[in-house]
Structures are given as structure tokens and as C-alpha cells.
Amino acid sequence: MIEDPTAAAIALDPVRARLLRLLREPGSATSLAPVTGMSRQKVNYHLRALEAHGLVELVEERRRGNMTERVLRASADAFVISPRAWVLLAPDPERSPDTLSVQWLLALADRLLREVGRLVTGARGRRVATFAIDGEITFATAADRAAFTRELGEATRALAARYHSDRGRPHRLVVALHPSLPPEEET
After folding, report:
1. Both 26 and 61 in a single domain?
2. 77: Cβ contacts below 8 Å, ≥ 6 apart
3. What angle do CA 37, 4, 33 make, to 5 degrees?
4. What is the pLDDT of residues 79-110, one digit of tens each?
5. Same structural domain, 158 and 130
6. Whole-angstrom Cα distance, residue 14 to residue 29?
7. 71, 60 in Cβ contact below 8 A?
8. What is the torsional sign of CA 175, 178, 182, 185?
């Protein structure tokens, strides 16, 4: 789990993300250069950044002529970037919502993970009343997407107002929309 904002930014860099995938098996700047199409020096530069943030670890050092080849591997099989890593960028979900910003979405995701985590921990094995919808929609134009988000917001607010009561237990409602990624797309 990556919680440091700087480490998250480094892991999300497309070149470094590719190196992390390649380093599931140990490798060096020398062995990765031909695979990536970059110079050994450039690969080494990126590996140093990954190593400085604990994303790769040294496996061994080999003496090769006048140089020492450093063999590294990813420090985990997979990395998950916590929404908390974006805390410096994300607004407080209680104030100043910018419902169209990615920072707002990340702030809501962070709050969702924290609150559901507390619910699960407090439930002690009992079932927690939750509901989720996941789907995909394709918009012909940006104007269609804007109209959809406006209508969805209005319909959701009307439905929430119809069922809201001052009695009972409050429930959090989060609706999110973001571009889908193809399964094999590298980002």
C-alpha cells in the first residue's frame, strides 16, 4: 500500500510503472535498457528514484569489468495507491465540493474506504447493510456526458429528499463517474 504522495507520483509515472512491472523478476539497468528502448543511464536514473521510495529493492551487486551491476526487483508483487496519498491535493469532502474534479473524487474515495473499514471492523463478523452499483456507459459527446451528470444529480437529490427522515440511522451515498480503462491499457 503506497500512502506517501511522492512515492505515489513516482509509481504512477508511465516509465517507472513499466519498470515496476518488469521488475517482478529481478533485473538491472543493463538488462532493462534493451527491453524499454532507453539508455542504461536513463533506466538507472528511474531505478534510483524507485529505490529511494522503497518501490524496488536490491537483490545483488555483480562486478562487471569497471562497473558494478545492481540487480533489483519490485519490493511487492502489486502496489495499491491509497487515496490518502493524495491528501495534499484532495479537498476536504465536508467543504467546497468541486464535483467535477479528480481530487474531489479521490477525497470521497478516501472517506469511503475509511468509513467502510471502520464499519467492517466494528461489525465483528456481522453483516453490514451496504449497496453498490457498478456499470459502464458510453457517451456520444461531452455534451451528452454533461447532460447525464446533471440529470443524474437532480434525480439522486430528488430521490434522497423523498426518502430522507430525521429519524433512523443516516447512510452515506456516493455516486461516481470516471472514464473506463480498457483491460489491457497501460497507464
Report:
1. yes
2. 24
3. 10
4. 877 766 765 555 566 666 677 777 777 777 77
5. yes
6. 17
7. yes
8. negative
